[in-house]
Specification:
The chain is an all-alpha fold. The protein is 48% helix and 0% strand.
Length: 117
């Protein structure tokens, strides 16, 4: 999710032949979370950069951290990550309840990946 590489040189291709609404919405949520996670990782030189792995580590995360804002920002980032996981799980639950008429986009047109029963 977070690499030490110039942003303008990174691209991401997601193939979803079914045009699933869930893929679109989870990718959108992930991009939003990344706007907070990536700067946090770069600011504090966080390793590992996978949030689930980082927050699961049972280490003294204060070791070698001299910036006084680190503890406050780490707590805020952990809260952001927990909220992100809740939003993703809610999207999964919502996707399992497909409306009878299929999904619609904001402008009212049918979602291209509809598989109406």
């Amino acid at each position: 999710l977070s690499v030490d590489y110039p942003v303008e040189k990174v691209s991401c291709y997601v193939s979803d032949d079914g045009a699933a609404m869930l893929t679109f919405e989870t990718l959108s949520e992930t991009a939003e979370f990344a706007t907070k996670w990536v700067p946090f990782c770069k600011k504090f030189n966080i390793e590992p950069r996978a949030p689930e792995w980082y927050f699961a580590l049972k280490i003294d995360y204060l070791k070698n951290k001299v910036q006084p804002s680190f503890v406050r920002e780490r707590r805020a980032m952990k809260r952001e990550y927990e909220e992100y996981k809740v939003r993703i799980n809610a999207l999964v639950a919502k996707a399992q309840k497909v409306p009878d008429d299929g999904w619609t986009m904001q402008d009212g047109t049918p979602w291209p990946g509809n598989n109406v029963r």
